[in-house]
Design brief:
The complex is a heterodimer of chains A (25) and B (212). By secondary structure, chain A is mostly helical. Chain A contains one helix and no strands. The chains are: A mainly alpha (25), B mainly alpha (212).
Chain lengths: 25, 212
Amino acid sequence: RPTMMNAFELISTSQGLNLGTLFEK
Amino acid sequence: MGCYISKRSKKLPGYEDPTVLAAETPFTVSEVEALYELFKKLSSSIINDELIHKEEFQLALFRNSNKRNLFADRIFDLFDLKRNGVIEFGEFVRSLGVFHPNAPQADKISFAFRLYDLRHTGYIEREELKEMVLALLHESDLTISDDFVETIVDKTFSDADSKGDGRIDPEEWKDFVARNPALLKNMTLPYLKDITLAFPSFIMNSEAEDSE
């Protein structure tokens, strides 16, 4: 049975939370 | 750009002594100086005033200064410790310190909680969680039925809200994150360990002897 997706896990994929982008040249 | 310009710009308001910032964060003095190079780049992308404006933050994150995003707004607001609408250098370093691989886990847990507590009530409420899920779906151009969104939110809430009072408090959040460590993945930026390699030009501008 597939595990139900955790809502916070879904949210944490937001591009707005990916601060690694700040370090890209 | 030569050293004269760099040293003069360090006297601008908002600049803070790297040794003070290094003492308060997981960064070394050299790393704070390297972060200053990144800060200068971000804070001059639209208005060259050594302050990161919301549009500059959006430009760095999305390559688009007009792209509104709920989560980017929340991050910006949390970085803006003085709540004056801009991110100063000291605020930038102190806030990024939480994302350092060596920062205390408790700081990351607390930052993520404040991030998701959209209305600053001290709790993550069901409505807030649903709003964030809908924002993520909108951002990703995903279409999921409202019934399924309700199901995801209900399931998450039943897992996280162990006291069953309809809201997630900081203690429940801490327990929930301990059971789901993947939730803190984006609270750590491996780049911060190599920041002096990413922005080596700080060496040319360094004023302080490194403490390490």
